[in-house]
Amino acid sequence: MRLDFALSNAGEGSRREIRDMITRGKVSVNGKEVRDVAFPVAETDTVYLCGKKVDIRRYVYLMMNKPTGYVCTTDSNERNVFELVPENLYRKGLFCVGRLDKDTTGLLLLTNDGNFAHEIISPKKMCKKTYRVKLFYPVTDEDVSAFERGLVLANGEKLLPADIDRTDKANVVYITVCEGKYHQIKRMFASRGNKVIDLHRIRVGKYFLPEDLETGKCRLIETPFMEIIEKKS
Predict the structure, then answer these.
(1) How many whole angstroms separate alpha carbon 56 and alpha carbon 200?
(2) 216: pLDDT strictly greater than 80
(3) Tens digit of pLDDT for each residue in 125-163?
């Protein structure tokens, strides 16, 4: 990568601002001052800008424990999840890999790598997602059977089979789906005459929400996606 691109992509300023700082001797690479804006750098290089170490990795892969009250887009005046991303992990073009509703909590993946996102959200990939659901009414045996057969929603839309695991609380279950349709979990239970009170995602593919990841916090994912996405058997 060019040095000016690497620093701009890391959110350290506009290309024009970065170029100005480079030419004024504010940047060092591997301990040596660099004034060439096009100087080639690798992600393993140690880069300092104005005395601060900068992570110049082009792509980042993050997991967040999303809190309630935040939306997954910047196309509104509401609080959005990007406000929760630490400055050192933020990259230009960062986006959510599949969205969670404003009132849904739990595991949210973010990246600026489109190939990574495709491996998760493409319908052909059949990536499994698991949610903990608190419901208004207890789940019945008939509900479980209907989910396992594949529900038909009120609009006639046919869904793929989904797995339900019960807990010791009759109105709390874990549901695993391999689709990502709009408000899918809420619509599924609504089709059975039930209502979702609380929805919390704990899994996407082979990513599980870490128990020690606090609500509203992010964690960098180091593992390449080709080792992590669950493939359909």
Answers:
(1) 33
(2) yes
(3) 899 999 999 999 999 999 999 999 999 988 888 999 999
- List the CATH code of the domain at 61-123+211-227: 3.30.70.580
Longest dimension (CA), the chain: 71
Q: What mean pLDDT comes out for the span 35-50?
A: 95
Could you give the residue range(s) of every CATH 3.10.290.10 domain in the chain?
A: 3-54
CATH architecture of 128-204: 2-Layer Sandwich (3.30)
Quick one: CA dihedral 23, 25, 30, 32, positive or negative?
positive
How far is the C-alpha of 61 from the C-alpha of 84, rounded, in Å? Answer: 15
In degrees rounded to 5, what are phi and psi of residue 148?
-70, -30
Residues identified as active-site: 101
Cα separations (Å) of 69 from 15, 123, 127, 135, 201? 34, 28, 26, 20, 15
Instruction: Indicate the pairing of strand 61-66 with strand 218-220.
Output: antiparallel
Which CATH architecture group holds 3-54? Answer: Roll (3.10)
Radius of gyration of the chain from its Cα atoms, rounded to whole angstroms = 22
Q: What stretch(es) of the chain map to CATH 3.30.70.1560?
A: 128-204
CB 187 within 8 A of CB 202: no
Supply 222's token pair. 């180091």
Q: DSSP string of 72-141?
A: S-SSSSS-BGGGGS-GGG--TT-EESS---TT-EEEEEEES-HHHHHHHH-GGG---EEEEEEESSPPPH
Give how far the C-alpha of residue 52 lies from the chain's centroid of Cα atoms, to the nearest Å.
28
